[in-house]
Amino acid sequence: MLLQGNEAVAEGALRAGCRFFAGYPITPATEISEVLSVRLPQVDGTFIQMEDEIASLGAVIGASLAGVKSMTATSGPGFSLMQENLGLAIIAEVPCVIVNVMRGGPSTGLPTFPAQSDVMQARWGTHGDHPIIVLSASTVRECFDMTIRAFNLSERFRTPVIVLIDEVVGHMREKMALDDEEEIEIFNRVKPTMPPEWYIPYEDTPSGVSPMANFGEGYRYHVTGLTHDVRGFPTSRPDEIGPFISRLHRKISSHFPEIQTAEYFQTEDAEITIVAYGCVARSAKRAVIEAREKGRKVGLLKLMTIWPFMRTAVEKVLQTSKVLIVPEMNMGQISREVKRVNRGITRVVALNKVDGTIITPMEILSRIQEVVS
Amino acid sequence: MAEVTKLIHKYLRHDKKFPHVWCPGCGIGIMLGALIRAIDRIGYEKDEIVLISGIGCSGRLPVYVDFNTLHTTHGRAITFATGVKLAKPSLKVIVIMGDGDAVAIGGNHFIHAARRNIDMTALILNNSIYGMTGGQSSPATPYGMRSTTTIYSNIEQSFNISELAVTAGAAFVGRGTVYHARLLDSLMEKAFLKQGFSVVEVISHCHTQFGRQNRLGTAVQMMEQQRDQAVTVEKAARMKPEELKEKIVIGVLVDKELPVYQDEYEKIRERAKEVMGR
Predict the structure, then answer these.
(1) Can you say how many angstroms the Cα of residue A10 is from the centroid of all Cα atoms in its chain?
(2) pLDDT band at B2 (very low <50, low <70, confident <90, very high)
(3) Using one digit for the tens of pLDDT, what is the confidence trace for B98-125?
């Protein structure tokens, strides 16, 4: 089947059990809306086009609270508008998925051109201390898989999950084998099983994730964007605020192995490792293949979880590498993280491009050449 | 009194730390009373009610009552309500907003929800001011009045919230005041039973902020003013526009039948399945 990245996102969402989508038209993410406007009503789901992206994420959070797996998709300007409600989904621990098909910015920027410049916004765009899970895809198949994974992680950890793709990946068409019988693991939120009068909606658990009751199922409780106690009621007590914010972080930080994935391509003996993600990882892979043909020991670390940042993956490639090259279509958002993990031990070379065009294999190869000489 | 106690026991959250956040004399309590009485009279199960609010004094209301309650971001309550209702249409969705919440920051969502005619009720407590943040002017602050951000005078024209709802296409619009508590009861009951987007604007007073800054007296005096300013829809129909200038028109402003969003969407699902079957 020949599919576009954006179409694969939509199909992945359906396979994951998504039955509600609210969105607002925006290039280059619109195809996700268009496909789901056709497909969701076929499976008794709901598609609604809202008046803006603020409303879109609001509706998505509402639908999820009512028990339906929900998502939205957007690009830079819309993602900016979503930041406040994103924070509400984090603090109220409401599972949902937000796909950001990145385009050039700031502001209206370059609607039809690719970029990777929302990486830090995805991490810190909403105010306040918060953890976040951000995944990345660089192939059409990964768009499908990562969207499913995003739903699984959001349900598992009761948190919004962001999928960052870029205009290239979103609009690219690739052959993708999609077997209806294929085993795909689907995780659904853990619901309370105790009698309603025993239910404490935000009670701490060993994993940090509390069971989640859907609206209308007999567990009447309060959901708020205010900092709240274990019952969900607003609190101003330091002895309740501190543990709550700590738990929000712990439920993510104590599950890094489950959340973080990366692909290692010829890194075992690599002296030069390229750290890349999204469409740039495709160019990087080509560059590795060509460099290997010339006898150079080059490898690729492809980050598929962007946040929480994969410290362990970078540390692993640092063991063999003399140089890390971090090509990105931004001014150096992930290279800064790589440098932070590296702590000055190894050489980290950034390769940044912000002119609306993709970083080519040739550009990476010539940077490898520069590094070697 | 026994009746009131019964309702309090049935609907208020006893594990919530009272006292509430509102000032003594605030009109929100009267609105809450009307809300509870209407729900009780209709006989909804507590489990089927979802009460959703935004930010401000009115935003704090849901926490006190034993329903599924959701306190959202400023101005966005209706968007969350849209998601809840479409995801689970069996739920009865009620949204509570203040004037700033509903028609300043949330104005866009308000008119679009009215236009879509999704089945839910929007209750708007209009006290002409931002109370919680300390008395700043809102889009419902009348021309010429004082607030902490218009200490010289408010030079903006105010929204007529109910008329806005009518124009945006709401299926039911009613306006009452917290002085006319019995009218509020019946307006809410009608609004809850209405299939489609229904609005009840509740004219209230903020004696703490708006009243104090404009020397309008105590809560009781401000409520007496509501009594004196109010004219029924029927009487207003016989009055000239200039006679209505300082008046509050109360009663049912609009009650019409329109296609309801969820019903229409059900037809879309059928069509989509036909397309798939081909």
Answers:
(1) 15
(2) confident
(3) 999 999 999 999 999 999 999 999 999 9
SS3 label, residue B163: helix
Q: Chain B partners of A214 at a C-beta cutoff of 8 Å?
A: 88
At B63-87, the pLDDT tens digits run 999 999 999 999 999 999 999 999 9
β strands within B113-225, DSSP E: 120-126, 129-130, 136-137, 172-177, 197-203
CB A79 within 8 A of CB B103: no
pLDDT at B1: 66
What is the domain extent for residue B81? 2-277
Read off the CATH number of the domain in which B49 is found: 3.40.50.970
Question: For chain A, which domains are there?
Answer: 2-175 (3.40.50.970), 265-372 (3.40.50.920)
Q: Under a CB-based contact definition with an 8 Å cutoff, are residues A126 and A138 in contact?
A: no
Structure confidence at residue B101 (pLDDT): 97
| DSSP annotation string for A7-60 | HHHHHHHHHHT--EEEE---TTTHHHHHHHHHHGGGGT-EEEE-SSHHHHHHHH
Enumerate the β-bridge partners of residue B231.
Answer: B249
Distances (CA, A) of A309 to A101, A257, A305, A316: 20, 12, 7, 14
Distance of CA A212 to the CA centre of its chain: 22
Q: What is the pLDDT of residue B18?
A: 79
Q: Which of residues 50-89 of B touch A (CB under 8 A)?
A: 50, 52, 62-63, 66-73, 76, 78-88
Q: Which residues pair with A64 in a beta bridge?
A: none
In chain B, residues 131-160 whose CB comes closer than 8 Å to chain A: none
Q: What letter does residue A181 receive in the DSSP assignment?
A: T
Mutate to test the interface with A, among B46, B52, B53, B79 (most CBs of A within 10 A): B79
Check CB contact under 8 Å for B73 and A88.
yes
Whether A340 shows a pLDDT value over 80: the answer reads yes
Residues of A in contact with B16 (CB under 8 A): 233
Coil, strand, or helix at residue A73?
strand
CB pairs under 8 A between A and B: 144
Which of B73, B86, B108 is opposite residue A85, by nearest beta carbon? Answer: B73
What beta strand segments (E) does A188-334 contain? 222-224, 262-265, 272-276, 298-303, 305-307, 323-328
**Looking at the predicted structure, is the pLDDT value of residue B43 above 90?**
yes
Q: Which of B69, B73, B86 sits opposite A222 (nearest CB)?
A: B69
Structural domain count of chain B = 1
